[in-house]
């Protein structure tokens, strides 16, 4: 019975939809698998949560194994449930980035019925867009939608937005599940916006100690199609270079305890100082030899 159901479900499976070992067609495979689970279990998110029914679990495992490449079956059989199999494949091939989530949100905002010939086609496209949020592990609730709106409301092209996007993407790609889940929420993104704005304001007010003069390349008209590249990369095309750079002296890394550059604080052989702001005191080692005893008489045998 299970085999017949699986054969009927994968009757329309093509080679382009079968999951490849490198995961290059993960999106097409995931869409096909969700369509089949919607038909069999009436739930397109069936693999995203544990299932207590033994018969349905056996059918789901068989369906998933039949839709992947044969070289991956042995590795997937080590997983105990179909949910674990799906999670394993997602962790390997489904690279979630904040840029993909924001692009999916933009596509959903720009969805119009007038762009499609029939309501059936429009509904199919809408369901595909909504399934994309599940693939990207982004639940459409108040917190996540608010985070998307806040992040997209920043003016494009500014350093403020670039830094906020970098921080959110770094949190989302972290190994901590708690941090990656909170990275897309409204309060976390709002905190990044405030911190970045404060840092940029402080940098704008503080005087710069680096007084190197950068030559204006726009004033030099150079012929040829590679003139711009030569200006950036070839030293012969850098006019009016300053002879030296006036700024703060740069020191190499050194130990905070004894100020030697050949090791760090954790490997310092000198006893730890109580106040690292004071200069180190070189310990004095006195060569003390044991005093010789009194003269002893030599007794001959």
From TrEMBL:
Protein name, as recorded: CCHC-type domain-containing protein
Origin superkingdom: Eukaryota
């Amino acid at each position: 019975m299970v085999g017949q159901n699986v054969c009927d479900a994968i009757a329309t499976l093509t080679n382009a939809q079968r999951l490849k070992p490198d995961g290059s067609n993960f999106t097409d495979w995931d869409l096909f698998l969700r369509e089949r689970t919607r038909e069999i279990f009436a739930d397109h998110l069936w693999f995203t949560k544990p299932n207590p029914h033994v018969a349905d679990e056996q059918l789901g495992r068989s369906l998933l194994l039949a839709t992947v490449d044969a070289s991956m079956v042995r590795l997937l059989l080590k997983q105990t449930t179909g949910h674990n199999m799906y999670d394993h494949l997602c962790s390997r091939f489904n690279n979630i980035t904040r840029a993909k989530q924001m692009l999916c949100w933009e596509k959903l905002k720009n969805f119009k019925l007038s762009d499609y010939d029939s309501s059936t086609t429009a509904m199919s496209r809408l369901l595909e867009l909504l399934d994309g949020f599940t693939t990207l592990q982004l639940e459409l609730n108040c917190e996540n939608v608010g985070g998307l709106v806040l992040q997209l409301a920043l003016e494009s092209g500014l350093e403020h937005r670039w830094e906020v996007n970098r921080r959110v993407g770094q949190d989302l790609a972290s190994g901590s599940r708690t941090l990656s889940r909170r990275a897309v929420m409204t309060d976390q993104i709002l905190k990044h916006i405030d911190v970045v704005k404060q840092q940029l304001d402080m940098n704008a007010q503080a005087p710069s100690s680096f007084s190197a003069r950068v030559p204006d390349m726009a004033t030099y008209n150079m012929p040829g199609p590679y003139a711009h590249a030569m200006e950036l990369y070839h030293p012969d095309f850098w006019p009016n270079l300053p002879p030296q750079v006036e700024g703060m002296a740069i020191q190499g890394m050194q130990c905070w305890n004894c100020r030697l550059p050949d090791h760090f604080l954790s490997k310092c052989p000198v006893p730890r100082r109580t106040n690292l702001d004071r200069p180190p005191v070189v310990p004095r080692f006195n060569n003390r030899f044991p005093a010789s005893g009194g003269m002893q008489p030599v007794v001959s045998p």
